[in-house]
Amino acid sequence: MDADIAPSTRGRILVVDDDDNLRRVLTLRLESAGYEVTAASCGEEACEKLPDAEPHMVITDLRMPGIGGIELLEAIQKRTPGIPVAILTAHGEIPDAVRATQAGAVDFLTKPVGAELLTCVEAHVRQSREYEVDGQDMDGIVTHSPLVRAVLHDARRIARHDSAVLICGPSGSGKELLAGAVHKASGRCGRPLVAINCAAVPPELLESELFGHRRGAFTGANYDHPGLFRSAEGGTVFLDEIGDMPERLQSKLLRVLQEREVRPVGELRSVPIDVRVVSATHRDLPAMIAEGSFREDLFYRLNVVQLRLPALVERREDIPLLVAHRLTQLAECGVPRRVFSPEAMEQLLTFAWPGNVRQLFNVVEQTVALSPGRVISSLLVRRALGEHESSMPSLDNARDEFVQNYLRQTLRLAEGNVSRAARIAGRNRTDFYKLMRRYRIGAQGDQNS
Q1: How is domain 312-384 classified at the CATH fold level?
Q2: Model pTM score
Q3: Residue 101: which of 445, 448, 447, 449 has the closest Cα?
Q4: What residue spans of 292-417 are helical by DSSP H?
Q5: What tens digit of pLDDT does each residue of 242-290 get?
Q6: CATH of span 12-130
Q7: Which Pfam family is one of those matched by this entry (predicted)?
Q8: Is the peptide bond before 264 cis (omega within 30 degrees of 0)?
Q9: pLDDT in tens, 383-398
Q10: Phi-psi bin for 227: left (phi > 0), alpha (psi -120 to 50), beta?
Q11: Can you name the CATH fold of 146-308?
Q12: What is the pairing mode between strands 271-272 and 261-262?
């Protein structure tokens, strides 16, 4: 249980709606269910109350005078991207709902709100509180994925200790970002975090970069160099791509970890060090041990605690949130604000992403730079992904693609409830079922065979 929350309180909710009656009803229902509620009548008031309210979840109306729901959502994602935000929508607001999805909304509640209110709040508040440790966020990491949240939960706990950490995961999945977050959440955060990519430094220079050298120790050593470990004194050393470290240096690194001292190249005496070691790799180190290219004893020294980041395809639900986060970063650098069309977002959601989050961010940046207007088209995304089309699609094919995407989006917004999806689309239930059968779309928006 969080120390700052009374035992009778299930969590903190910020409710934002310009309708006084609806705001009161929502507040009473949530308070009767055990939640602590802060209410705001507009987006501007919500922004003012956000720091003091410290909500575990925000529920906001989509359309309000001044700052609307989407603008409020974007402001919250910019300030505290970990807070889940649900949007209150009226029927027929699909384009705005798609925009909200792109900005990172976790759910949509259609007015009038029924029993789904407490179901939605319970799920997201429980998840938000489960991974809240001493009110501390893992710096710079945005996610709704249960897989990533579980990793962050472990990372927060082990950050307080000095145990060596090995971060595993495919290239581009955010291992360096996680290493930095562990350092910032640790007691060593006031001291340096010094990083080196073991694969990027020539083998003949890596030893002096790690452990330092004396002037004149070798050709080109024109000055004393403290090395990575001594530069990080009192802080954290991050050894990226540790699986690419030459075998000759693995034994020397092992000795440094065992004896807690380094001997610079050309020096006769060893120097004591006080550092924490965090390492990362995309390689299969146990397989390398089996083939004899990585030391088993070094592996056990580095692998006291292991954190494994999933590939982006294992956390597709994070793609809209990551896209919104990158768009916000670009906008803060003076780049005009852009949004992805529904078809373009669908392509991002379904792509294989061999380069993971790094590749996704590159695609976002490239399409933002090349987009002639505010809306980024699916054609630009296809080009950025290397999926060129030889010709314009026919009118029939273009219409079919639009209807398929529309059905998928509607069913996902309706959480698989076909009657609700039909109401959103303005069609009767029988006609909607016919469209689903024609385009082979399942109730969850998936493609039937």
Answers
A1: Helicase, Ruva Protein; domain 3 (1.10.8)
A2: 0.59
A3: 445
A4: 296-302, 319-332, 342-350, 356-370, 378-384, 395-413
A5: 999 999 899 999 999 999 999 888 787 889 999 999 999 999 999 999 9
A6: 3.40.50.2300
A7: AAA_lid_14
A8: no
A9: 999 864 444 456 777 7
A10: left
A11: Rossmann fold (3.40.50)
A12: antiparallel
